């Protein structure tokens, strides 16, 4: 009798665990991408790019400059909010902000393959007007920016609060799940860094509560040519842009 009860409990535990794994697999992109914060657009987009039949709508600041800057934001970031600061910090560059698929007024659905494809299409579009293009990628955007810089002649690359692998980040949060087997959008940045042939600045938030320091350090170790590193003291993952050292580091590197 006792053995039978134990077998029933084990079977129930297996079913429950399997159900959790299935739910995580099916809902993983809802965990990774959070476009909802960007849906209430305050400034109408003034730039449009169509890639693979998907219409992406964003903003261009300081048009007509000889050099360009493309910014890729975090998974829950309203990149619209960076418009004025980036335009003021880099008056000598035309700034391109293009929300990810399903963010703000962009169509489609986000995935790693889609976001990287859109980044390549955006770079190719900008390169028709400006030959010198710098790129900033923040958090999730660092995974997009790394793959772009590995495939296109980026002038300078800035990675803000980056990670080596989204799989490894997720495994740190869900160590009791087979994360490596479940994840489709992996953002394995460490695999691409040695195909990057431009100066790189990595900005790390000292008190980053989202991306563990070891994940950023692992990315740094993957570079054969060590990038420049700036640690923003007392900054958190979502507040790094509020510190003067963040602006100063970007201005020094990109001017």
Short description:
38% of the residues lie in helices and 18% in strands. The protein is α/β, with parallel strands linked by helices. It has an eight-stranded mixed β-sheet with strand order 1-2-4-3-5-6-7-8, sandwiched between helices.
Task: Explain the overall architecture.
The structure is a single chain. The chain has 255 residues and is an alpha/beta fold. The chain has nine helices and eight strands. The mean pLDDT is 92. One of its GO terms (molecular function) is hydrolase activity.
Q: Helix and strand layout, with pairings?
A:
Layout: H1 2-26, H2 28-32, E1 47-51, E2 54-61, E3 67-72, H3 83-89, E4 93-97, H4 112-127, E5 132-138, H5 140-151, E6 157-160, H6 166-173, H7 179-182, E7 200-205, H8 213-222, E8 228-232, H9 244-254
Parallel strand pairs: 3-4, 3-5, 5-6, 6-7, 7-8
Antiparallel strand pairs: 1-2, 2-4
Helix pairs in contact: 4-5
Count the beta strands: 8
Helix content: 25-40%
CATH topology: Rossmann fold
Which CATH-level-2 architecture? 3-Layer(aba) Sandwich
Q: Supply the number of helical segments.
A: 9
Strand content: 15-25%
The major beta sheet can be summarized as: 8 strands, mixed
* Order of helix and strand elements from N to C terminus: HHEEEHEHEHEHHEHEH
> What separation lies between the terminal Cα atoms?
76 Å
Instruction: Give the full name of the CATH homologous superfamily.
Output: Alpha/Beta hydrolase fold, catalytic domain
Number of domains: 1
The CATH class is identified as Alpha Beta
Find the structural class using helix and strand composition.
alpha/beta
Mean pLDDT comes to 92
Strand order of the largest sheet: 1-2-4-3-5-6-7-8
Low-confidence stretches: none
Query: In angstroms, what is the radius of gyration?
Result: 20 Å
What general outline do the C-alpha atoms trace?
A: globular
Protein name: Serine hydrolase domain-containing protein
GO molecular function: hydrolase activity
Organism: Dyella japonica DSM 16301
Domain Serine hydrolase: 102-229
């Amino acid at each position: 009798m006792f053995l039978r009860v134990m077998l029933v409990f084990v079977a129930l535990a297996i079913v429950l665990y399997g159900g959790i794994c299935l739910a995580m697999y099916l809902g993983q992109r809802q965990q990774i991408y959070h476009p909802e914060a960007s849906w209430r657009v305050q400034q109408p987009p003034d730039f449009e790019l169509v890639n693979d039949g998907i219409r992406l709508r964003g903003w261009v600041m300081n048009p007509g400059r000889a050099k360009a800057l493309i910014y890729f934001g975090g998974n829950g970031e309203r990149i619209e909010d960076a418009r004025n600061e980036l335009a003021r910090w880099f008056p000598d560059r035309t700034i391109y902000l293009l929300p990810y698929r399903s963010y703000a007024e962009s169509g489609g659905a986000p995935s790693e393959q889609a976001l990287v494809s859109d980044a390549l299409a955006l770079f190719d579009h900008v390169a028709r007007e400006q030959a010198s293009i710098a790129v900033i990628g923040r958090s999730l955007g660092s995974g997009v920016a790394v793959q772009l810089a590995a495939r296109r002649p980026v002038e300078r690359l800035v990675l803000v609060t980056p990670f080596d692998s989204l799989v490894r980040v997720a495994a740190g949060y869900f160590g009791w799940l087979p994360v490596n087997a479940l994840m489709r959008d992996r953002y394995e940045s460490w695999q691409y860094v040695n195909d990057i042939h431009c100066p790189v600045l990595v900005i790390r938030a000292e008190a980053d509560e989202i991306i563990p320091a070891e994940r950023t350090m692992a990315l740094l170790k993957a570079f054969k040519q060590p990038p420049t590193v700036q640690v923003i003291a007392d900054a958190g993952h979502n507040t790094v842009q509020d510190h003067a050292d963040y602006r100063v580091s970007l201005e020094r590197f990109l001017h």
